[in-house]
Amino acid sequence: MARTPTDKRKYPAAIVAARSSNHPCAIALKDDGDARKRFDDTMVETALLLVSTGMSLKQVAAELGVSTGAIKQRRFDDREGFGERLDKAYADRAHTLKDTVLEVAYSKEYTAAEKKVIIEALQWTAKVDNRNRYGDKVAIDQRQVVINLPPEMDGI
Hints:
57% of the residues lie in helices and 0% in strands. It is mainly alpha-helical.
């Protein structure tokens, strides 16, 4: 079965809504036949929106018609704070993935084994994207050992 641009399995609901609106981010999403190869300033907001709604960087690059390297280079250059904004988009994506975990858990479309694999992958991605909120909580027990030395060993 061929997937259409509004297929929920490939595109989250926010992207489908953005495609049908006149929002500035939707302009880059519409199929206008323009084969852009350069990741320019007009694509930044769209890329951030797509990442925060659950798409991978590879999917975003394909959607915008640019290479993933172009997006990574802009992040590395950190023009206009793009790197920090992309990190925030990844943190927001973790919340989207949390919601997707719940959707998959209650879905009748997948078997129990498929659900387990999908949920584990989504949880891992959310943990990587937003370590503070969804990462492993490590409790460190720091116990102090106090040794009282006799006065004659004090200078040693």
